[in-house]
Specification:
Layout: E1 4-12, H1 29-41, E2 46-49, E3 58-68, H2 74-83, E4 89-96, E5 109-117, E6 129-130, H3 137-144, E7 149-152, E8 168-179, E9 182-189, H4 196-209, H5 214-222, H6 227-230, E10 238-244
Parallel strand pairs: 3-10, 5-6
Antiparallel strand pairs: 1-3, 1-4, 2-3, 5-9, 5-10, 7-8, 8-9
Helix pairs in contact: 1-2, 3-4
């Protein structure tokens, strides 16, 4: 039987989902997409994502591939699936993909964006972490380079998932930019461990508060520490920003919300 493959780029509000991956007795983004595709195409489909976001984590541009026995124009597939999706999930673009394309295996890098709010917000609270304390952003910027490069991030991983996975990760870049009442932290890496980004952000915020020093953070990188687990940032401020494939480039850091 012929099989047709599509590359899908989508955005979603992770609030109310138990993460990307299909789970028993839990609402997931992956299962929501599969149901929408099957309702529209009226055939069984398979969908695999490039990254598995945690419960409550959002995506500005997640990538996935869809396999279907039915041929359909990419624009019609996008429109048809969106008609069957809840408002919290939106397909941005659909492209025909080669038979060997795999959204996860062919991805070169992934970028995450974390938003910290300097003020209490009624409308943006689902998409930020409000930190009441004054933060020293200069110290935070200067310390982010501790995480750059190929390191063992055992102190920053929650090993309850992927127990056998290596904790060594290549972090290609880290940026902190200020936008009025928003502090945006971007982290680009080969891949990420469960809760790793949220723990990097949490530790960096503690340093910005004055509760940690750069040597404290350096020690967490050279010997195992339980401290990052205590400082895990909430999922609300985290976005899978972009999945990069050959030829892709990152756009300028731009928060998806604005707080004046």
């Amino acid at each position: 039987m012929a099989s047709y493959k599509f590359k899908i780029l989508l955005e979603y509000d992770g609030t109310g989902y138990r993460g990307w991956q299909t789970q028993k007795n839990a609402r997931s983004v992956q299962e929501t997409l599969i149901k929408a595709a099957q309702s529209f195409l009226d055939v069984p489909v398979r969908i695999q994502g490039a990254g598995r976001t945690d419960a409550g984590v959002h995506a500005l541009e997640q990538a996935a591939h869809l396999e279907s026995p039915k041929k359909v124009h990419p624009d019609i597939l996008r429109t048809g699936m969106n008609d069957h999706l809840p408002s919290s999930v939106n397909i941005l673009r659909v492209e025909n993909a080669p038979a060997r394309f795999h959204a996860r295996h062919h991805a070169l890098s992934r970028s995450y964006l974390y938003l910290i709010s300097r003020r209490r917000t009624a409308f943006g609270k689902r998409y930020v972490w409000w930190v009441k304390d004054r933060l020293d952003c200069d110290k935070m910027k200067q310390t982010l380079d501790v995480f750059q490069g190929f390191h063992d991030f055992a102190s920053f991983a929650d090993k309850r998932m992927d127990k056998e996975a290596s904790t060594k990760v290549n972090i290609e870049g880290l940026w902190l930019k200020e936008f009025d009442n928003i502090i945006a932290v971007r982290i680009l890496g080969s891949h990420f461990l469960w809760k790793m980004v949220r723990r990097i952000v949490g530790v960096t915020v503690e340093l910005g508060r004055g509760n940690l020093t750069r040597p404290d953070v350096e020690k967490m990188m050279t010997s195992f520490s339980e401290l990052p687990a205590h400082f895990t940032a909430p999922p609300s401020g985290l976005f899978l920003e972009k999945v990069l494939y050959e030829g892709d480039k990152l756009p300028p850091v731009t928060p998806p919300i604005c707080l004046l």
